[in-house]
Amino acid sequence: MSVRELPASPSVQLGTLKAAIFDVDGVLLASPHEHAWREALSGIADPNLFTTEMYQANVAGKPRVVGARAALEALGVPDAARLAVSYAERKQKWLEYLIQTGGVQAFPDALRFVQAVLSLGWPMAVASSSKNANDMMRSVHLVSGQNLFEVFDVNVCGRDLPHGKPDPAIFLIAARELQIPPAHCFVAEDAPAGIEAAHAGGMTGLGVARHDDAALLRTARADLVVTSLDEVAVDELAEGRMCRKPA
Fold first, then answer.
1. How far apart are CA 174 and CA 4, in angstroms?
2. Cα(54)–Cα(119) distance, rounded to whole angstroms?
3. Please, what is the average pLDDT of the chain?
4. What's the rounded Cα separation, in Å, for the pair 232 and 219?
5. What residues form DSSP beta bridges with 124?
6. Dihedral over Cα of 158, 27, 237, 117: its sign
7. Residue 13 above 60 pLDDT?
8. In this predicted structure, what is the pLDDT of residue 15?
9. What's the pLDDT tens digit per position in 131-157?
10. Is 76 left (phi over 0), alpha (psi -120 to 50) or beta?
């Protein structure tokens, strides 16, 4: 379902989009966060129980310690609150190792979409709770010779905020620094918590279902759900509307 097929709301007026905010992990980059969380479970719980579905529903998009506790609680680990800090630290060490050994890849459709939005002349922000997002983006280069980190006008990655997603703070900060009202921004997210945060901030939510999890994103009230960013109609976007390309 496209935004055009939804009734207008006071916070999102159709045909008025003019800025983009991107999450990083799962939207722009196939980064090794999930892999790191799974490997770090060894000795705490069975890593095989840490599925992609569980990661997307409970961990993705959340600050590190919050995500660690959510994962342990979802797995039924006793004393999850106490173990969350050490689990998060182990996950970070695994992540750093995976980044150093080439574990970060960009999604080709994401790079094409970023370039398309850039060609519209739209201001763009990148907003992730991950403190590793910037280093990962610097490792990805575009055809223009720029690295991915350099193409965004505003960067809100890894900042210490009182609350993580689904709290909208990170996206509201991005909109403020872009100097664009939230109602004129869309947020590209792969996690339900991120879509919920976009809506809480009065923004259009573009759900990217890379893990056969479109239903979760729709339940979180994504305005449009795609499996590839190539599905977004850029010509409609140029007119301020978020729509799927015709079949």
1. 25
2. 36
3. 90
4. 20
5. 20
6. positive
7. no
8. 58
9. 889 999 998 888 788 899 999 999 999
10. left
Using alpha carbons only, what angle is made at residue 154 by residues 224 and 229, rounded to the nearest 5 degrees? 25
Please give the C-alpha separations between residue 169 and each of 10, 51, 127, in angstroms, as whole numbers.
19, 28, 10
Pairing of strands 124-126, 19-22: parallel
Percent composition of the chain: helix, strand, coil (DSSP 3-state, to 5) = 45, 10, 45
User: What number is the average pLDDT over the span 51-73?
Assistant: 90
pTM score: 0.81
Cβ neighbours for 242, distance < 8 A, ≥ 6 positions apart: 2, 3, 17, 186, 204, 206, 223, 224, 232, 236
Write the CB contacts of 114 (distance below 8 Å, at least 6 apart in sequence). Answer: 22, 28, 124, 148, 151
Cβ–Cβ < 8 Å for 34, 57: no
Q: Tokens in use for 198?
A: 């976009």
Q: What is the pLDDT of residues 170-197, one digit of tens each?
A: 999 999 999 999 999 999 999 999 999 9
Tokens of 50: 């840490």
Does the structure show a pLDDT above 70 at 9? no
Backbone phi, psi, residue 106, to 5°: -90, 145
